């Protein structure tokens, strides 16, 4: 089921205003110029891909680091540190 309170519509600049208004009424959603984020990432990325995905990469690294610290034995941690260093 679609949550209409959390859903938003955005349109191409080529679509006429009357059609936009008609769709907003029929769909029961609000219209926005640009969507913010979806699943923690911006919906429009543009040319700055490295900066956008750097945040995601850092979050993944932190989770992996935490996971590795919990599951590896002391000997395995030493091997991992020597391999990375």
Query: What characteristic shape results from the CA principal axes?
Result: elongated
Poorly predicted runs: none
Count of domain modules: 2
Number of DSSP E strands: 4
Radius of gyration: 22 Å
- Gap from first CA to last CA: 50 Å
Structural class: mainly alpha
Helix share bin: 40-55%
Describe the strand arrangement of the main beta sheet, using strand numbers: 1-2
Percentage of residues in strands: 5-15%
Q: DSSP helix count?
A: 3
Q: Could you describe the largest sheet, including whether it forms a barrel? A: 2 strands, parallel
Average pLDDT, all residues = 80
Spell the H/E element sequence.
EHEEEHH
What labels describe this entry?
Reverse transcriptase, 53% helix, two-stranded antiparallel ribbon, single chain, 2 domains, 85 residues, mainly alpha, two-stranded parallel ribbon
What does this structure look like?
- The chain is mainly alpha-helical.
- The chain has 2 domains: 1-33, no CATH class; 45-85.
- Helix content is 53%, strand content 9%.
- It is built from 3 helices and 4 strands.
- The strands form 2 sheets. It has a two-stranded parallel ribbon with strand order 1-2. A two-stranded antiparallel ribbon has the order 3-4.
- Strand 1 (8-9), helix 1 and strand 2 form a beta-alpha-beta unit.
- It is elongated and about 70 Å long.
- The protein starts with 7 loop residues before the first strand and ends with a helix.
- The model has no long low-confidence stretch (mean pLDDT 80).
């Amino acid at each position: 089921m679609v949550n209409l309170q959390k859903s938003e519509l955005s349109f191409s600049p080529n679509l006429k205003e009357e059609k936009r208004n008609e769709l907003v009424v029929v769909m029961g959603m609000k219209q926005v110029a640009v969507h913010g984020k979806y699943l923690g990432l911006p919906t429009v990325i543009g040319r700055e891909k490295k900066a956008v995905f750097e945040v995601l990469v850092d979050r993944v690294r932190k989770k992996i680091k935490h996971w590795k610290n919990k599951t590896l034995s002391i000997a395995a941690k030493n091997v991992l540190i020597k391999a990375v260093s």
